[in-house]
Amino acid sequence: MDSLTQLTLGSAVAAAVLAKTPGSRAKVVLTGAVLGTLPDLDVIIDYGDAVSNMVLHRTQSHAFFYQTLAAPLLAWLAALCCGQRAHYWRWLLATWLILISHTLIDAMTIYGTQFGLPFTNTPYAVGSMFIIDPLYTLPLIAGVLYYLFGHRRGYQLNMVMLSLSSLYLLWSVAAQWHVRQVVSVSLQQQQLQYQQLLVTPAPLNTVLWRIVVMSEHGYGEGFYSLLDNKANVQLHWVEQDPALKQRYGMLKPVQQLAWFSQGFYALEQQGDSLLLTDLRMGQEGSYAFVFKLDPTDASAPQQLPMRRDAVKALPWLWQRMRGTPLPSPYISAALTANQ
């Protein structure tokens, strides 16, 4: 999840565990925020190339085993900074919960979190939450503010807001399951043959969902809103040359992304170069992770900037979320430019 969500979640958990201990509430909230953002400091590590930096994010710093080993020392430092050494055991519980909750909320997104290290490096990804979702973060902020500014029921209100945010996570899983059932029936009715199906939320919400379907000769992208009048999912298909994956499948960056994305990737020839795309994050015409490879020397893949156009994308998102059948803004813009 985004940094604001993680630091706020850390503060909320710290407040929940340490609310009844004497001392500065501000220090508790600030220390919880610092602990909540610590696992993401692994982004400063350079693993040698752009693809490796991507697939090795959320590894050891997000693993339950290593977090449990680090918790006693971090808890001692936290208790020392807050002048609460007498409440070390409460800080140990708070620190462990903050680190674990950071990993758990990250695992709810589609990116991939390797929390089983060192026993397994499987990148777990529920994919029911977008990386930024105001309906999850705002209750956490409200609860922390109630606690921080001395409201006499601040502890209870912080717990209520933590519970609401947790219920929202459960809602996202239920909504994802429902959309997957709708999409599966729609694809069956259309007699479409496919190999893999991905259902993940569109930006900032859990009402509009993005669908990616992988087939032998390409992939299809579609959207389904819980407010749609019809349970019929229309896909925009992008053809792919399967020979490219066979020819270049042994290149290290291709192997890495194929594993990390669990098969939801695209490989395209562009002149003398290859474009390697993670199809899980972003949407057609605007992907978060696109890498340019030299097939003769794939040791230094170059990450291309993500195409963004908020002027078109945000109005489209709002209208499509409400059930208006509109094509993706990036696809429609490309079609218009080619006419």
TrEMBL record:
<feature type="transmembrane region" description="Helical">
    <location>
        <begin position="160"/>
        <end position="179"/>
    </location>
</feature>
<dbReference type="Pfam" id="PF04307">
    <property type="entry name" value="YdjM"/>
</dbReference>
<keyword id="KW-0472">Membrane</keyword>
<feature type="transmembrane region" description="Helical">
    <location>
        <begin position="124"/>
        <end position="148"/>
    </location>
</feature>
<keyword id="KW-1133">Transmembrane helix</keyword>
<keyword id="KW-0378">Hydrolase</keyword>
<feature type="transmembrane region" description="Helical">
    <location>
        <begin position="89"/>
        <end position="112"/>
    </location>
</feature>
<dbReference type="InterPro" id="IPR007404">
    <property type="entry name" value="YdjM-like"/>
</dbReference>
<keyword id="KW-0812">Transmembrane</keyword>
<feature type="transmembrane region" description="Helical">
    <location>
        <begin position="64"/>
        <end position="82"/>
    </location>
</feature>
<dbReference type="InterPro" id="IPR053170">
    <property type="entry name" value="Transcription_regulator"/>
</dbReference>
<protein>
    <submittedName>
        <fullName>Membrane-bound metal-dependent hydrolase</fullName>
    </submittedName>
</protein>
<dbReference type="GO" id="GO:0016787">
    <property type="term" value="F:hydrolase activity"/>
</dbReference>
